[in-house]
Structures are given as structure tokens and as C-alpha cells.
Amino acid sequence: MDFGILAGEKEMDERELIICRCEEIKKGEILDVLKMGHTDMNEIKRITRAGMGLCQGKTCKRLISRIIADETGQPISEIAPSSFRPPVRPIKLRVLLSCPDQSEKELKRGDLILAGNGAIGDRALPEMTRDRDFKRLT
Predict the structure, then answer these.
(1) Is residue 136 part of a domain?
(2) Could you tell me which of 111, 40, 105 has the C-alpha nearest to residue 72?
(3) pLDDT digit string (tens) for 52-76?
(4) Is the peptide bond before 87 cis (omega within 30 degrees of 0)?
(5) 70 shares a domain with 97
(6) Other Cβ atoms closer than 10 A to 90
(7) How many angstroms separate the CA atoms of 54 and 119, rounded?
(8) C-alpha closest to that of 86 among 78, 95, 74, 77
(9) pLDDT tens string 94-108
(10) Are residue 24 and residue 55 in the same domain, yes or no?
């Protein structure tokens, strides 16, 4: 059985392939950055945000390295990996807010909680404000 293009569907443009699922970065965006002369993993990461998502590049860094190698002719073994900054894993905000004696800091009415945008901020904020009288400011 042929698992190729189904009847009526158009062939997908290779530039539309999603390389970084966390940040929804397509191959075409990476190719455009390479054409601008940015061939370093860190430059590509800064410009496109590829590798900055929840997985911190665990799923896309090899794909990006392969694209760089294919486009520049550089051996993949010579492509320097991008830098990683902590936290490389999601951390619950209660861990960051805990006091040195390991007891949880109590949030009081009037405290301000700043939560980042994206998957971590969207998940952490409701957890931190559960059963408390906080208003969400957007």
C-alpha cells in the first residue's frame, strides 16, 4: 500500500516542516536565518527561538544541526551545540518561593506574582493562586 500523498492533497512544502515543536519554528525560518549569514546554533536560537521551548532543544537541536550541515557543507561533528541556561527542566514556583527552612512562603493579599508567558507561566499561575483572592492582570 502506498502511504504517499492522499488523493486531493497537495504535496507539503519542505519549508513548512515544523522543526521546533515547542516554539512552532518551521524549517523555512531556519533556512532564512542561514541565508542571512547566521550559521551558529546560538545565533539561530536567539533569532528564531528554536530550542528555547519547554524541552530546551532536546527534540530539535539535532534537526537544526543537520540543517546547518546540509546548507553550509560543514561536518555535523564541527557544529558547536547551543548554550543552555538553567532551568533546563520545569520547576514548580513553590520550590523557587520556598524559604531556607523548606517551609512554603505564604502569599498574602496584595502580593504581586509575575508569571512568564507560555506553557510554564500558564500552568504555574493557577497553581500558585489557587484558593486565594488574586486577580489576573493581562
Answers:
(1) no
(2) 40
(3) 888 888 889 999 999 999 999 999 9
(4) yes
(5) no
(6) 11
(7) 7
(8) 95
(9) 666 665 554 444 555
(10) yes
Would you state the cell numbers that stand for residue 68, as one nine-digit string? 546547518
What pLDDT is stored for residue 39 in this prediction?
A: 92
Mean pLDDT of the chain: 76
d(CA 45, CA 65): 11
Domain of 61, in residue numbers: 14-78
- Residue 30 has phi, psi (to 5 degrees) of -70, -40
Give the up-direction half-sphere exposure of residue 7: CA atoms within 13 A in the CB hemisphere: 0
pTM assigned to the model: 0.56
Is the CB of residue 54 less than 8 Å from the CB of residue 24?
A: no
User: pLDDT confidence of 115, banded at 50, 70, 90?
Assistant: low
If asked whether residues 18 and 73 sit together in one domain, one would say yes
- Residues 55 and 32 grouped into a single domain: yes
Question: What's residue 83's pLDDT?
Answer: 78
The DSSP-derived string for 65-86 is: HHHHHHHH---GGGSPPPP--S
Return the C-alpha cell found at 82. 547551543
* Torsion over CA: 41, 88, 16, 63 (sign): positive
Cell output for 63: 534537526
